[in-house]
Amino acid sequence: MPDPTPDFIDQLAGLSPDSPVAALRREKPDLVAFAQGSDQSLLEPADPNDLSLLERHAVAYRVGLLTGFPAVEKRHRRRLLDFGRTDLASHIERYPDVKLEPRLAAIIRHTDLVTLHPGAAGPEDIAALHAAGLSPAAVVTLGQLLGFLGYQIRAIAVARATQRMAVQNFAIAIGYNCVFVPLAVIGIVTPLIAAVAMSASSIAVTANAVRLRRKSLRLADRRITS
Fold first, then answer.
1. Are residues 41 and 138 in the same domain?
2. Are residues 177 and 72 in the same domain?
3. Domain hosting residue 210, numbered range
4. Which of 111-125, 170-184, 201-215 has the lowest mean pLDDT?
5. Would 220 be classed as within a structural domain?
6. SS3 of 132, please?
7. Predicted pLDDT at 4
8. 148-160: string of b/e by CB count within 10 Å (b at 16+)?
9. What pLDDT score does 222 carry?
10. Which of 26-35, 58-67, 68-77, 144-153 has the lowest mean pLDDT?
11. With a threshold of 0.85, does the pTM exceed it?
């Protein structure tokens, strides 16, 4: 039986344990476990090695800012405060107008590049990270972290969109059954009109499914909106 315990994607998307969308995610338990395990290993590893916990949460906080997800921002701002750097979150938010330490500045600059322009990073950008003091292992970990955060942001956006469209679909179905069916029964509308209304409601539900499938989650030039 799938584990109903909310993971970070559920929590950040605002899904309750009994939500249909949360239940749908549990139909792929391996994927849920992978996402939760990746979150733990990339953001809270027992041995952070060459990329510190502070740097990891600074990256995640910046991604939350760039993509416009307050829940993500809040989570990682809280962790930055845990490290005793009460000013760091505001400095990251205002970067590049506010200077950061050279190593952290290079990390945040690379975060902006990969988040806003996926695929644009080249060898010179990797060289800039090395020049700022990041080891090859740290650069690899940073790439893994940014890749996972991109996935997590998109999963949250899709979960929220699915939740909204499910509510819309229920509203359409309830509206049809509560309005047109009784009106047809008492003869105020003809069966033909009721049938047309039923078809329209089905088309609206199908259109919602198409909208969800085509929902653009690009970060370049605009934010993903929740």
1. yes
2. no
3. 160-214
4. 201-215
5. no
6. coil
7. 57
8. bbbebbbbbbbbb
9. 42
10. 26-35
11. no
Categorize the per-residue pLDDT at 17 as very low, low, confident or very high, splitting at 50, 70 and 90.
Answer: confident
Assigned domain for 199 exists: yes
Mean pLDDT calculated for residue range 25-50: 91
Listed in sequence order, the residues at least 6 apart from 28 whose beta carbon sits closer than 8 Å to its beta carbon are none
Same domain (yes/no): 166, 141: no
Give the chain's mean pLDDT: 81
Assess contact for 83 and 113: CB atoms under 8 A.
no
Query: Does residue 164 share a domain with residue 75?
Result: no
Q: How far is CA 204 from CA 86, 161, 171, 177, 199, in A?
A: 49, 15, 11, 15, 9
Last residue of a domain, one of 152, 185, 200: 152
User: Counting runs of H as helices and runs of E as strands, what totals does the chain give?
Assistant: 11, 0
How far, in Å, are 50, 95, 118 from residue 121 at the CA level? 21, 19, 7
**Cα 53 to Cα 43: distance, rounded to the nearest angstrom:** 7
